[in-house]
Amino acid sequence: MRKLINYFKESFTELTKKTTWPAWDKLQSSALLVLVTTVLLALMLLVIDFAFQHLMTAIYTL
Questions:
Q1: What is the distance, to the nearest Å, from the Cα of residue 11 to the centroid of all Cα atoms in its chain?
Q2: How far is CA 9 from CA 12, 26, 50, in A?
Q3: For the segment 31-53, what is each residue's pLDDT rounded down to a tens digit?
């Protein structure tokens, strides 16, 4: 049990004292970049899926 308590204490110390966290502005811009990239990739996959669906429908109706 002592090892577990020591682990949590060391983890807390590392997260609060040794880790450098990004500034709020940098964090917001990074989150926005991830959001935009995710939406663009989702749209690209939608187009690819739509095209593949129509291609397969055309092949199966021959």
A1: 24
A2: 5, 29, 52
A3: 999 999 999 999 999 999 999 99
Backbone angles phi, psi at 12, to 5 degrees: -65, -45
Q: What does the alpha-carbon distance between residue 61 and residue 15 come to, in Å, rounded to a whole number?
A: 60
pLDDT value for 62: 87
Helix %, strand %, coil % of the chain (to 5): 85, 0, 15
Asked if residue 10 has pLDDT above 90, the reply is: yes
Q: Are 30 and 22 in contact (CB under 8 A)?
A: yes
CA distance 7 to 14: 11
